[in-house]
Design goal:
One of its GO terms (biological process) is methylation. The chain is an alpha/beta fold. Helix content is 39%, strand content 19%. It folds into two domains: 3-58, no CATH class; 80-286, Rossmann fold (3-Layer(aba) Sandwich). It has helices at 3-9, 15-26, 30-35, 43-57, 62-66, 89-102, 119-127, 145-157, 197-201, 222-237, 253-263; strands at 68-71, 74-77, 107-113, 136-142, 162-166, 184-190, 242-247, 268-273, 279-286. It is elongated, with a radius of gyration of 21 Å.
Length: 289
């Protein structure tokens, strides 16, 4: 059977996704399918392709089947232990990079919590405004060894200088933030689980992704509240500017902003909208104390 015939006979998924799956099986670029449409696909290649098509039809994310996903212009390895990077999360990276650029003359310490595939800190590290004589440090944490293994591979792939730690949110790096020089700016990024159980159950497209990386208690805010609790001693004892960027569900904006104001009366908050006009990122800013 030829490439053209095989694709014509594939009813689901879409032609675009079918082409990507076949490229993966043939280890070829998309252009190859056009220029070699009359080439014969071997029995074993057909079998592998049809198996992938079946998995995709049953809801397995395309990125898991081909093993990678583009994010912020970079290609990242992903698997069933990591979330698939999403376009809306690029806003989080963009805002954090803008913040870093505004303080490019200061040492920057970036911390990504719940890093998963490592796409956020690696994308930041690859795009930072850096002066040769100003050091920049990137840390990332996660409670999944399997996810951290993927993150390590992605950092190596992109030669990113990110130090990964196993542990809960900021806990593994708090001691490293003591004794920083006065000319330092701390940036914390977080795309933590923020869906409710109901949201998870009602969204078929995410059923194959790790539930622990998607769902949180307390109407999806439990981990963000825990993160902010861990930030409290930093604000109290580290006399440095701190910026926290959190990706949220649009419906959580008012509640989480209210919680921030409750525990940080002096903290400044700002909501940023995604390309669909929905509140997607909450920034909390702490000036020097």
């Amino acid at each position: 059977m030829t490439i053209a015939t095989l694709l014509q006979q594939t009813k689901t998924p879409s032609r675009t996704e079918a082409s990507l799956l076949l490229c993966h099986v043939l280890t070829q670029k998309k252009e190859f399918l056009i220029t070699h449409s009359d080439d014969t696909v071997s029995f074993w290649q057909q079998r592998a392709y049809k198996r992938l098509v079946k998995q995709r039809t049953n809801g397995t994310p395309l990125a898991y089947l081909v093993g990678h996903k583009e994010f912020y212009g970079l290609d990242f390895l992903v698997n069933k232990h990591t979330l698939v990077p999403r376009p809306e999360t690029e806003l989080l990276v963009e805002l954090a990079l803008q913040e870093q650029a505004r303080h490019a003359d200061a040492q920057t310490v970036c911390i990504d919590v719940g890093t998963g595939s490592g796409c956020i800190p690696i994308a930041m590290q690859a795009n930072m405004t850096v002066h040769a004589d100003v050091p920049t440090v990137c840390y990332a944490t996660d409670t999944s060894y399997a996810a951290l293994k993927v993150a390590y591979k992605n950092a190596a792939k992109h030669t990113a200088r990110v130090t990964f730690f196993y542990g809960n949110l900021l806990e593994p790096v708090l001691h490293r933030l003591q004794g920083l020089n006065d000319h330092t700016h701390i940036i914390i990024t977080a795309n933590l689980p923020y869906l409710t159980e109901e949201q998870f159950q009602n969204e078929p497209s995410i059923q194959k992704e790790p539930k622990s990386a998607l769902v949180a208690q307390d109407t999806g805010l439990a981990l963000y509240k825990e993160l902010l609790t861990q930030v409290q001693p930093l604000v109290a004892h580290v006399s440095l500017p701190i910026s926290v960027f959190m990706e949220i569900d649009p419906g959580q904006a008012e509640r989480l902003s209210g919680y921030v104001k409750k525990i940080f009366p002096m903290g400044q908050t700002h909501l940023y909208k995604d390309l669909t006009g929905k509140n997607r990122v909450l920034k909390v800013q702490f000036s020097c104390v």
